[in-house]
Design brief:
The chain has helices at residues 2-29, 49-58, 66-83, 89-103, 110-121, 130-139, 152-161, 184-193, 208-216, 245-253, and strands spanning 36-39, 143-148, 170-173, 201-205, 220-224, 240-242. It is α/β, with parallel strands linked by helices. It has a six-stranded parallel β-sheet with strand order 3-2-1-4-5-6, sandwiched between helices. The longest helix is centred in the first third of the chain and has 28 residues, at 2-29. It is globular.
Length: 255
Amino acid sequence: MKLKLYVLLFSVFLSITSIAKEVETFHKMHSTLPSVIFFDVNETLLDLGNVAKSVTVALKGRDDLVASWFTTMLHYSLVTNAINDYHHFGEIGIAALQLVAKQNDIFLTKEEATLAIKTPFRDLQPHLDVIAGLKKFKDSGIKLVTLTNSSDAGIASQLKNAKLTEYFDGALTVQELQIFKPDLRVYEWALKQMNVEAGDAMLIAAHGWDVAGAAKAGMQTGFIERPGMFQFELVEKADYSAPDLLQLANKILGF
């Protein structure tokens, strides 16, 4: 008798859990459209393939070290947050490349590291899906704003060279705050700059850590599943996810 009762209770629990998940999914699918969408830029909108090739050349053909360089760059951006010692993201990228070179017994001067990072970052092109996705959002009347760890001059140059400037109503960077994403203060500052409540705003990024920060700040979130990009299991998942920006736009806008 007790066993049957336990089985019954467990079945009820599973049913309730299933219903709760369905309700959550329904809520996400029918949530209010954001009035402002913030976009990460590097890798989310712009293809970093040229940077990867340049870093590989600087590291004497060691393409297996590109991921290590990028991870080191992100790591030390968070270190600067923690010790309140801000440097432009580009500077951190150069120093990170020098560090990875030293760790792998590769001789690399600061001048070579600077050339390897700065040159390709000036000429990044959008992923093939980006313009169509941005047009979709733009036509819907949603305000579009970039929010990046880059400098003011850096993002202005990138958007101009990639011919994306016309799609955005604003370009915010962490340069004024001197704090890098995913620190919650960055998202809170961005919301104030655009005079929008967190629940009425969305962040779209191809980086799980960026999505996690925005979600924690109360924003709606969209994740682009670029190759090799995944969400972390211990943080809240994005409200919407898709392999590219156009498919993500269709999901968010309900097409």
